User: Fold this.
Amino acid sequence: MTDQNTPTPVIIDCDTGVDDALALLFAVRHPGLDLRAVTCVAGNTDVDGVVRNTLTVLERAGAPDVPVARGAERPLIEPARSARHVHGQDGMGDLGLPAPARGPVDVDAVTLLRREILGSPRPVTLIPTAPLTNIALLLRTHPEVTGNIERIVFMGGAVNTGNATAVAEFNVWHDPEAAAILLTAGVPITMYGLDVFTRVLVPGADIRRLRASTEPGARLAGELLAHRPAGAVPGAPDGDEPSGGLGDAGAVCAVADPAGLGTRRLPVEVSLAPGPARGQTIVDRRLRPGEAEIHGDMREQALVDVALDVDVERYVSLYLETVEGTGARGD
Ligand code: BDR
Ligand code: CA
Assistant:
């Protein structure tokens, strides 16, 4: 729970990534969050591109001292499969941003995660917004870290429709075994999946205002949102101007303001079998046991707080007020 006087220590594990960049901008600027470190993993683009993009965003956000570490360059089993067709050749919208002035820390992501988690005086909230490879490696290499993890709020999975496949969401599909390890970590887990991820849209007029900002971080947020066009928001005073999805940034909003997210604690399992369902998060919403359980076919399943509803207005306002530092919206 965020306490205004004591910011929540958080670590973001990302594959920056247009919407990961939106998440970083928000995390750096929200007064209730203390961004202790950022770790990078292959996903939207190759891991070196992710490191470069992450460092550039943190510099633009005015947070050049947050430690950044390079992590896994491919999933546990399968080869890396980028999403450059969505995020651009540089993985971050091909905005022509400058190279960062500094490099990553000289330890790998798993080592930095362990150091920051165990070294934190308060339990840390982990926010993975990428394939879960680094987190799985951490949990298997240093399981003692779970003693100082408050909870994990991850962007990934879907109750209903997928995006990478008909049923699988990209972050889980990219490394299903890693996602399965995450779900059984033994700490409280919130799944911020596609069901809410796709709903949080910033109206076009707000994007226009951000793009015109003289403040570099707010302007970058506007450029990034313009790279994530969605339909016009019904009822918004901006005619047909396309809105832009907050994407991964919504998961960070959910840590800063949990009351904006509607969740249910449900059994979740990742489909690991080869074939059309690989990477699907199977969420059991049944109200009572079925024949499988009645006939003794019971398996241990992770219980996860699955996001089923989100207060879109609330998170869009929270995002804009935080990134613009104004507390004001409108044209
Ligand atoms: C997820 O996949 C990536 O492309 C986005 O950054 C987000 O984390 C959505 O499926
Ligand atoms: Ca991402």
Summary: Confidence is low (pLDDT under 50) at residues 327-331.
